[in-house]
Amino acid sequence: MRRRYQRTRDDADLRQERRLQYQEGNRTYQAKLREAKLKSWKEFCSRTQNSNPWNWVYRYAAGKIRGTLTLSSLEDNNNTYTADIPSTLNVMMDYFIPEDSESSDGVHHSRTRQLMTEPLHTTDDIPFTTLKIKTAL
Fold it and tell me: Structure pTM?
């Protein structure tokens, strides 16, 4: 209705008629919107009869309400499915955090392990003075 009213430019009588139609339609829409909001609020309040409904709203807005964590069953390496939460978590840990063994290392990982065991010698390092350590604390 609004677009029809706005598009009518040449005929002033038709524009006025469509303006009135748009205003009436807008009033009806706003009234139904208010009614739906009030109905929704009343329904929400009736579900939380034992407590103050505003408590829930403020906790929700602050992000303090979280949904419950539901873990589904996963298929492990043996083509079997997990039946409970501990076994599901074990399968997830095995998948996301694999065993760290030297036998499965590639060239890059072997070199990284070797560099970690060697002492660090850099020429640019300036030794700490006692004064710097005391002022840092």
Answer: 0.37
SS3 125: coil
Asked if residues 29 and 20 have their Cβ atoms less than 8 Å apart, the reply is no
Determine the straight-line distance between the first and last CA of the chain, rounded to whole angstroms: 71
pLDDT one-digit tens code per residue, 102-111: 888 889 988 8
Q: Does 8 or 46 have the greater pLDDT score?
A: 8
H helices of the chain, in order, are 2-7, 12-47, 53-61, 85-96, 107-117, 130-136
Taking alpha carbons only, the member of 27, 29, 33, 24 closest to residue 5 is: 24
Contact assessment for residue 86 and residue 93, using Cβ atoms and an 8 Å cutoff = no
Q: What does the block give as tokens for 63? A: 């992000």
